[in-house]
Amino acid sequence: MGECLNSSPKHLFLRTASRAGLKRIAAYISFLVDFYRFRRQSKLHEHRFSSTWKDRLVCLSDKTGTTEFDRHYVLHTAWAARILARTLPEQHVDISSSLYFVAVVSAFRTVLFYDYRPAELQLDGLQCNAADLKDLPFADETIESLSCMHVVEHVGLGRYGEAIDPVGDLKAITELKRVLTEEGNLLFVVPVGRPKLMFNAHRIYSYAQIASYFSELELVEFALIPDNPADGHLISNADQKLADAQSYGCGCFWFKKSRYKDEIKE
């Protein structure tokens, strides 16, 4: 406290200005330079668009050397879409996964999408409805092709308005297994690594936890999106040790309810 009182405003500014703040100032100066350069060069083209100061929308974070993206959400949906392009189900049911995913897949497969907060999205080949993942509106063993991706880790933490439930994720997993048909496919995605609960955002699971929760099903494929891109981007048939070494990796599990699973194990 004494140091703050005795410090000059200039000294405090220099001590507290963050690197991000300085970058933002530099970006704004670059924006100003670009604006006046563009305005000067636009004089011969004002019959097309006028360039006035009041008509501006400042975007300061897009001048990057590469295009940034959320690796979890781009790559896990790409993984799932490729599987559906192989299995080609007559109809696919998705529970609360990415809207981008169901919107794109509905271009070549009929998709029924269910969410706790129903989406007002209308497209040919896509139907959007409301459902509680802990109490799905389907009879036992009636869904042949099912996905629930980057969803279960949230259930019961109150983030999306659902009831608080410490085992809500386990109840959701039970429902997914209940409604899947014999020989049906389930695409399941959750954060993986060292187990941790981050209330009220999400849970992070170990590989062994997920394997035990779905022990009745056959694991067809496990893919991993690791924390560090240097370790790989979307690693097919990833090693369990690598998965468990992550802090917030993305585990992609393709399960099948196989009638022959127990016979194969024997």
Concise synopsis of the structure shown:
It contains nine helices and ten strands.
Tell me the CATH architecture of the largest domain. 3-Layer(aba) Sandwich
Shape: globular
Helix content: 25-40%
Largest sheet: 8 strands, mixed
What is the CA-based Rg, rounded? 24 Å
Count of discrete alpha- or pi-helical segments spanning 4 or more residues: 9
Describe what this molecule looks like in 3D.
The structure is a single chain. The protein is an alpha/beta fold and 266 residues long. It folds into two domains: 1-64, no CATH class; 71-265, 3-Layer(aba) Sandwich (Rossmann fold), CATH 3.40.50. It is built from nine helices and ten strands. It has helices at residues 2-6, 9-16, 19-41, 71-87, 99-105, 168-179, 207-213, 240-244, 261-265, and strands spanning 91-95, 110-115, 126-130, 143-149, 180-192, 196-198, 202-204, 218-225, 235-236, 249-256. The strands form two sheets. It has an eight-stranded mixed sheet. A two-stranded antiparallel sheet has the order 6-7. Mean pLDDT is 91; it is low at 1-5.
List the helices and strands and how they pair.
Layout: H1 2-6, H2 9-16, H3 19-41, H4 71-87, E1 91-95, H5 99-105, E2 110-115, E3 126-130, E4 143-149, H6 168-179, E5 180-192, E6 196-198, E7 202-204, H7 207-213, E8 218-225, E9 235-236, H8 240-244, E10 249-256, H9 261-265
Parallel strand pairs: 1-2, 1-4, 2-3, 4-5
Antiparallel strand pairs: 5-10, 6-7, 8-9, 8-10
